[in-house]
Design goal:
It is built from twelve helices and twelve strands. The chain is of the alpha+beta class and 338 residues long. Among the domains are: 46 residues, 2-Layer Sandwich (Uridine Diphospho-n-acetylenolpyruvylglucosamine Reductase, domain 2), CATH 3.30.43.10; 100 residues, Enolase-like, domain 1 (2-Layer Sandwich). The strands form three sheets. The protein has a five-stranded antiparallel sheet with strand order 4-5-8-6-7. A four-stranded antiparallel sheet has the order 9-10-11-12, sandwiched between helices. Strands 1-3-2 form a three-stranded parallel sheet, with helices on one face. Strand 4 and strand 5 form a beta hairpin. Helix 5 packs antiparallel against helix 8 and helix 11 runs antiparallel to helix 12. The longest helix has 17 residues. The N and C termini lie far apart (44 Å). The mean pLDDT is 97. Bound molecules: iron/sulfur cluster (SF4). The site of iron/sulfur cluster has 14 residues, from loops.
């Protein structure tokens, strides 16, 4: 582990100034990913800027009916907030499907968006990895790639985004609020995470000198019919092999609006909004779910060890939509797949 200077930001402006001053500086919030990255020598910042004292922990109703979650609100604070539970139960379910209670108490909303892939080669500085060291190659292509991407991958990187919470935020069309040297701006959630292309070292469209200040969720009609279905090697404390956040608005047996986001399959939460729009008006029935699953997985490509993810994802989409339409969202306490 490299030695680093530790500073504590007293304001958002302080944090931004520290990022502007040092292109390698890293912000420290919950630290549940960054501290590991530093210990493994994957991240080697010369400056770590602690932002835990910034006033970004609040969860607030806005006049337009949306809900704003501060970037430093812990995953637990969000999951147990009565307003989030009532209006965005899909988000609650996804948060409770992830990590452990101890980690959720420490991990923050902003940090969840910025957590890095769990590709084993990324965490091993002895292995080539274009994400850790651009131009060094990708050990996962032709290597062990059981947990890797089936959609949106490139020759340079086949890693997947590890978050559960972000899959729900993608389905809910969240807005990310950020602040940088030029002031505040907003990023639509679909544009926040990137596909790897030739620059897999960049996970997001956030500039180095910008800080996430919050997430905004618009009111929706999905509280009754939603689910977060997470399939993994063990039922607790494991990253998703495949996950599905599904939300449906139904009337008289037909779909009015539909959202399906996939986790564990790509470098970002995966959605196909064109496909979703085409299924508006279709019967809320198994045959529709199967057709949509086929459509979502039509371009899927395995890497060898992870070929099983393609049929698994297809089945998961169908099962998740069945759960959502039946109003029986996946129980994250019992965890047995319903
Ligand atoms: Fe690195 Fe991406 Fe290849 Fe993993 S899949 S070794 S993160 S370049």
């Amino acid at each position: 582990m490299m030695p680093f200077a530790y500073t504590r930001a007293q304001s958002i402006g302080d944090a931004v100034a520290a990022l502007v001053a040092d292109p390698q500086a890293q912000l420290l919030a919950g630290g549940t990913n960054l501290v590991d990255l530093i210990k493994y020598d994957v991240a080697q910042p010369l400056t770590v800027v602690d932002i835990n004292r910034l006033p970004l922990k609040g969860i607030a109703d806005l006049p337009d009916g949306s809900l704003r979650i501060g970037a430093l609100a812990s995953n637990s604070a969000v999951a147990y907030d009565p307003r989030v539970r009532e209006r965005f139960p899909l988000l609650v379910s996804a948060i409770l499907a992830g990590a452990s209670p101890q980690l959720r108490n420490a991990a923050t909303t902003g940090g969840n968006l910025l957590q890095r892939t769990r590709c084993y080669y990324f965490y091993d500085p002895a292995s080539p990895c274009n994400k850790r060291e651009p131009g060094s190659g990708c050990a996962a292509v032709g290597g062990l790639n059981r947990i890797h991407a089936i959609l949106g991958a490139s020759d340079a990187c086949i890693a997947v985004h590890p978050s559960d919470m972000c899959v729900a935020l993608a389905a809910l069309d969240a807005t990310v609020e950020v602040e940088g040297p030029d002031g505040a701006r907003e990023i639509a959630f679909a544009d926040f995470h990137r596909l790897p292309g030739n620059t897999p070292d960049k996970d997001t469209t956030l500039a180095h000198d910008e800080i996430i200040t919050g997430i905004r969720l618009e009111a929706n009609h999905f509280a009754a019919n939603h689910t977060y279905l997470k399939l993994r090697d063990r039922l607790s404390y494991a990253f998703a092999l495949v996950s599905v956040a599904a939300a449906v608005q139904i009337a008289e047996g037909r779909i009015i609006e539909l959202r399906v986001a996939l986790g564990g399959v790509a470098h970002k939460p995966w959605r196909d909004q064109l496909a979703e729009a085409e299924f508006a008006g279709a019967p809320a029935a198994e045959e529709t779910f199967a057709r949509l699953a086929d459509r979502l997985l039509a371009q899927a490509k395995g890497q060898g060890h992870n070929d099983f993810k393609i049929p698994l994802a297809r089945l998961a989409v169908v099962r998740a939509l069945r759960q959502a339409v039946n109003g029986r969202s996946q129980n994250q306490t019992v965890k047995a797949i319903q």
